[in-house]
C-alpha cells in the first residue's frame, strides 16, 4: 500500500485576508515526483509556505509527514521542517562560512552532537550532489548551479520524508537548470518524494511527471499535453 506524505482536503490558502487558492484537494504518495506550475502570482509560493508552516492553514484539512497543519503550533514548526527538505530559488547559503561549515551549522542546529557522524553525513550528502571535493569552498567561490546543489545537499541532511523545492532553477541558466534537475531526479529515484514549484516548462517536457497547476485560485492535476 502506498504511504501518504501529503494530504490536503478542501484547503483554502490566504495571504493576509486575500484568498489565493481555494478547494485544494490533493494527495502525494511516498516516492512521487510532483511539479507545481502556474503563472506568476497564481499562488505557488503561498502553497509551499503553507506546507512548511510559514502560512497558517485556517481552512480545510492538511496532513504533511505526520503533522496536522490545522493544529500546528509555533513550537512544532522546527520539528516539521526537520522532516522536510526545503530548497529555495536563491539558495540561502550563509556567505560567511565554507560549504562544510554551512552544513555543520544545520546539523548542530537540528540536534546532532557527534563530530565523526556529522562529518560522515556531510560527506554523504555532498557526494550525492557531486560536490564532495568542494566542501572547503565558500559560497561565493561556487557557480549558481553548484550553490544550488549544495542547497539540495543541505536539504538532505536530516533524511527528509518530503522535499519542497520552490523554483529551484529560477536563478539558473537552462543548461545549469538541467544539471540541477538531474540531481533532483536521481534523489527521487533513490526513493525520496519531491514537490517542485516551477515555471520552467522546458524542464517539464524533458522530465515529465505528475503535474499540478495553480490557475484561477484552484489547483488541479493536468496531463502533460495541456500544460
Ligand atoms: N506577503 C504577502 N502579503 C500579501 N499578499 C501576498 C504576499 N505574498 C504574496 N502575496 C499575494 O498572493 C498571491 C500569490 O502569490 P505567490 O507568491 O504565492 O504566487 P507565485 O505563483 O508563487 O508567484 P511567483 O511565480 O511570482 O513567485 C499574489 O496575488 C501575491 O500578490
TrEMBL record:
Listed Pfam families: ABC_tran (PF00005)
Coiled-coil region: none
GO CC annotations on file: plasma membrane
Gene3D superfamilies documented for this protein: P-loop containing nucleotide triphosphate hydrolases (3.40.50.300)
Domain ABC transporter, chain residue ranges per copy: 6-227
Keyword Nucleotide-binding listed: yes
GO MF term set: ATP binding; ATP hydrolysis activity; transmembrane transporter activity
Alphabetical keyword list: ATP-binding, Nucleotide-binding
Functional summary from the UniProt entry: Part of the ABC transporter FtsEX involved in cellular division. Important for assembly or stability of the septal ring.
Family: Belongs to the ABC transporter superfamily.
Matching PANTHER family: CELL DIVISION ATP-BINDING PROTEIN FTSE, IMPORT ATP-BINDING PROTEIN
Protein known as: Cell division ATP-binding protein FtsE
Organism: Abyssalbus ytuae
Lineage start: Bacteria, Pseudomonadati, Bacteroidota, Flavobacteriia, Flavobacteriales
